[in-house]
Design goal:
- It is a single chain.
- With 256 residues, this protein is α/β, with parallel strands linked by helices.
- Helices cover 60% and strands 14% of the residues.
- It has helices at 6-19, 21-58, 65-72, 77-126, 128-145, 176-193, 198-205, and strands at 153-154, 161-165, 170-174, 195-197, 216-219, 227-233, 240-246, 251-252.
- Helix 2 packs across helix 3 (65-72), helix 2 (21-58) packs antiparallel against helix 4 and helix 6 runs antiparallel to helix 7 (198-205).
- The longest helix is centred in the middle third of the chain and has 50 residues, at 77-126.
- The relative contact order is 0.09.
Length: 256
């Protein structure tokens, strides 16, 4: 039996701790706050006894505030230390989380810029018609990877054409006129309010909210919402399906 790779184990542990540092610090902070409360409660009888002893020494029924603190403070040292450390953990967890969110937003922005530059270059090199052909092939592949037979179809009151949203991966019924109307409504709100979330767009087309739908959205600084449609067939080869994609994909931290 070979010797255990201690270096590899240490590196693995460091990696896990780094990856989950925010959760670990936050959990430790919460646990510490609970412990602080328990220690403070347990210390109270001892503190009251010390205060009573101090009253007897000074032959008085009421101690000045400073004397009360002097008599009882040592009893609360463990609770105080635990509380301070818990606060540090909570602040540390929040700081790590904020840094990661900032890094994620930066990476997302760089990816979005690279994608736009790539699209513009594709149009420049192959022309608009061939670029649309490429889009159609991408849409066709998305339909193939997400067969409607394996998915729930969202029923709306906006039409009877089968549609596919390539952001949330959901099938729903609508029609191109209703989707264009929703696009115009969102662009009107962008002009007036400067930002609109992805979930607000879903409200317009009759789809339910998704978990990240309030964190993703559009900002007027990046331009208006522009939908792209690709007419495809579902996997049965007979049912028409309208694949809906976005010229400007919804952006993370769009309100910044």
């Amino acid at each position: 039996m070979g010797k255990p790779n201690l270096h590899g184990i240490i590196q693995m542990i460091k990696g896990v701790l780094f990856k989950h540092s925010s959760e670990i610090l936050t959990g430790a902070g919460i646990a510490g706050m609970v412990t602080t409360t328990v220690l403070a409660v347990k210390a109270t009888p001892a503190a009251m006894k010390q205060i009573q002893n101090r009253k007897s020494e000074m032959e008085t029924d009421k101690l000045p505030a400073i004397e009360t603190v002097k008599a009882a403070w040592k009893c609360y040292v463990p609770a105080t230390v635990t509380g301070v450390l818990s606060t540090v953990c909570l602040i540390g967890g929040c700081t790590v989380s904020n840094r990661r969110n900032a890094a994620l937003a930066t990476a997302y922005g760089l990816s979005e810029t690279a994608l736009k530059e790539y699209r513009d270059k594709v149009v420049e090199v192959v022309g608009e018609k061939k670029e649309q052909t490429i889009r159609d092939e991408v849409a066709k592949e998305k339909i193939a990877k997400n067969p409607v037979s394996n998915r729930e179809i969202v029923m709306t009151d906006n039409g009877g054409t089968l549609c596919f949203d390539d952001v949330s991966g959901r099938y729903f019924y609508s029609d191109i006129e209703q989707l264009r109307k929703a696009e115009n409504n969102i662009n009107r709100r962008l002009r007036d309010e400067m930002t609109v979330s992805l979930n607000e767009f879903y409200d317009e087309i009759g789809l339910g909210h998704i978990g990240v739908g309030d964190d993703l959205g559009w900002c007027m600084d990046k331009g208006y919402l522009e939908l792209y449609f690709s007419a495809q067939l579902a996997e049965d080869g007979r049912t028409p399906c309208l694949v809906m994609s976005y010229s400007v994909v919804p952006e993370y931290d769009y309100r910044r």
